[in-house]
Amino acid sequence: MHFLALSGSLRAASTNTALLRAFARTASPLAEVTVFDGIAALPAFSPDREGDDTPTEVLTFAAAVSQADGLVISCPEYVHALPGAFKNAIDWLVSRDELIAKPIALLHASHRGEDVLADLRRVLATVSGRFAPDIFARFELMKLDPDQVALLMEDSANRDRLIAFTRRFADFVAAG
User: Can you point out the beta strands (E) in the chain?
Assistant: First the structure.
């Protein structure tokens, strides 16, 4: 089983991306996880650039989504909402087929962020018939650097939570 992990943060030292990298290390042997790093390269969405005019970066992103058995998203909150670059990425997929039946689950890297979680749940439930809002895990990682996140996620309790999350999501994906 292959999962694509999408971080809503473009920050080099992102706790969300660090959480997804820890998830990728922990998920084996239940799943192979690829952390997608091309969201920053996506141009601003325009319906005029869809179809034959779709940019190569968008086609690469759409192909990665298409080839994954499921998506795991970790996204920060900016100004009580989705970050613009992440919403832009979702916008590129709205009129395409890749997300329609794609299983999606959320990881969260903060003790706060209820507004972005509500936005994610609303948007993802709109674009995918297989969004699983109850498959969710939250870790309090805010203000930690990626090395600190990696170390913290090696703690047996955190590893066990990530494994349980992976197992629940893999079961959901397999149940089709």
Answer: 2-7, 32-36, 70-74, 104-108, 131-138
Q: What is the pLDDT of residue 173?
A: 98
Rounded Cα–Cα distance for residues 175 and 42 (Å): 32
Question: What is the chain's length?
Answer: 176
Q: What is the pTM of this model?
A: 0.97
Question: According to the model, what pLDDT value does residue 22 have?
Answer: 98
Supply the DSSP symbol for 81.
Answer: B
Phi, then psi, of 71 in degrees rounded to 5: -115, 140
CA distance 15 to 12: 9
pLDDT band at 145 (very low <50, low <70, confident <90, very high): very high
Burial classification of residue 134, based on how many CB atoms lie within 10 Å of its CB (0-12 exposed, 13-18 middle, 19 or more buried): exposed
